[in-house]
Amino acid sequence: xxxxxxxxxxxxxxTxxxxxxTxxxxxxTxxxxxxTxxxxxxTxxxxxxTxxxxxxTxxxxxxTxxxxxxTxxxxxxTxxxxxxTxxxxxxTxxxxxxTxxxxxxTxxxxxxxxxxxxxxxxxxxxxxLYDYLLSVSLREPEILTQLRQETAQYPIGRMQIxxxxxxxxxxxxxxxxxxxxxxxxxxxxxxxxVVALALPRDGKIVACxxxxxxxxxxxxxxxxxxxxxxxxLHIAPALETLDRLLATxxxxxxxxxxxxxxxxxxxxxxxxxxxxxxxxxxxAIDNVLWSGKVADPEVQDNRTKKIRAFNQKLHQDQRxxxxxxxxxxxxxxxxxx
Length: 337
Ligand SMILES: C[S@@+](CC[C@H](N)C(=O)[O-])C[C@H]1O[C@@H](n2cnc3c(N)ncnc32)[C@H](O)[C@@H]1O
Fold this sequence. Notes:
It is a single chain. Strands 3-2-1-4-5-7-6 form a 7-stranded mixed sheet, with helices on both faces. The protein has 2 domains: about 1-110; about 125-335, Rossmann fold (3-Layer(aba) Sandwich). By secondary structure, the protein is of the alpha/beta class. The protein has 9 helices and 7 strands; from the N terminus they run H-H-H-H-E-H-E-H-E-H-E-H-E-H-E-E. The structure holds S-adenosylmethionine (SAM). S-adenosylmethionine binds near residues 161, 188, 190, 237 and 262. The site of S-adenosylmethionine (SAM) has 21 residues, from helix 5 and strand 2. One of its GO terms (biological process) is methylation. This is Methyltransferase domain-containing protein. Keywords: Methyltransferase, S-adenosyl-L-methionine, Transferase. GO terms for molecular function: O-methyltransferase activity; S-adenosylmethionine-dependent methyltransferase activity.
């Protein structure tokens, strides 16, 4: 071989080796790339798996969240339903409370001893005629005038009887020759004092009231007038006091009874008084015209209805002689036969 050919052959081999080296290098690069690729693939697969797992976790969480939302919606619905039930119950309760308040008001109004229009002067008279009546007939002792003036200062002062009515009661007591009387409803003491002043020295009044406060004023005036020893005050429901009198054999021992306490018990007071007064004894019942409300068909409250029924009963009651006198707020006189 010529040196020229040898050199050419070496050069070709070198080129070939260089090419192979390049090829090997390229293969290694390729293998390296493959490994990188494989590694990337593995990384990618791992990431994908993680991602899929995460997605499943996310989906699961979403389902849990949806389930929780449904549970929450269900709970909210139950809560809304409960709230509506509670609101409904509250309205029922409010309605019941209003009904109860209305009933209580009616009951308080009916049991209050002070009617809306209770009067301390005779009904239906023009003021100038009423003033004239007083000016030519009233002989009111100074102590009674003082009691009337003091009582008039209280808002409930109109529960007091009228002065011309007091004088009329005193006349009746004198007419009967009464010694023993009943005063049912004392208040500040006008009716008991006017009767006590008309009774003889040994006269006696059994006085009934439930109020210590009102009757403290009455006691003061009885003392001042010097008639306290004639008056036995019983602080208790008058029905109980009257029943005790009947139980202690005081039936038919009274000459006169004046009924002027709570109107709802008028019939009970009348029936007991009828047993306690003697034949020929007199029962006087106040407020039977009830400020005119008894004659007004529009008025249908319990007390007015009770007074109407009471008046009708007495109209038919043959155990007594009867007169309804249009003095003050109306005074029925029932004389026991
Ligand atoms: C209209 S005032 C009496 C007025 C009195 N007669 C006068 O001349 O001034 C009615 C009185 O009855 C009393 N009263 C109310 N309910 C009673 C009851 N169940 N028993 C006894 N007194 C009662 C009240 O305290 C009140 O003092």
